[in-house]
Give the backbone structure.
Amino acid sequence: MSIVGPVKKRKLPVVKLAIAVLIVVVVAVLALRGVDLRELGRRAVALVDQGLDLIRAAGPLVFFTAVAVLPAIGAPLSVFSLMAGEAFAARLTMTGVVACTLAAIAVNLALTYWLARYALRPLLMRLLARYGYSVPRVTPDNALTVALVVRCTPGPPFFFQGYLLGCAEMPFRLYMIVSWLAVLPWTLAFVILGKAAREGHFGKIATALGLLVATTVAVQVLRRKFANRES
């Protein structure tokens, strides 16, 4: 199976390092110029609160419809998950928020598959070829392995992985099961983290971060196992 073009040597994460340095420099300059960083933080929190108030006013139907549609065109799913608990836990309970989020994600996965396999297939195939990606060759024997390797490969955004699997004509049922299970622990962690961080509940924050770490480790183990099998 070939997911990307020729293997490149691993490079230093220059962009990420530059961003980190820039953040440190900006914070240092603000502090040296006497800017009250605490007040700046309070203003940032106030802006977040205003945004959440607008989301609550729009209602859960609008919000979860956005979750079902917008990630299919590149909106980050993690941002929706982080906001969901704080915005609607009081109205729906955390269990209800998680259930609605996962249901909306299932709709999004189906939409992404339809776009990739049918509606946008010619355009997507040209784009994949242009940027050096090759569509995995899916057979009945390797379909599960291909789905797991693609979903467990770090780097490509979640919606892009869905487009890749759809273009590869992955069986829909297998695509839905693997994709939904792959996003499940991340969604749980981000929903919990968003709510806990706003409340300052360090126990829940630690739980969410622990779930993220455990998921990251499990994903890498699965990827190595199934990538070796496919090789």
Remarks:
- The radius of gyration is 20 Å.
- The chain has one domain: 59-230.
- Confidence is low (pLDDT under 50) at residues 1-12.
- The longest helix spans residues 77-119.
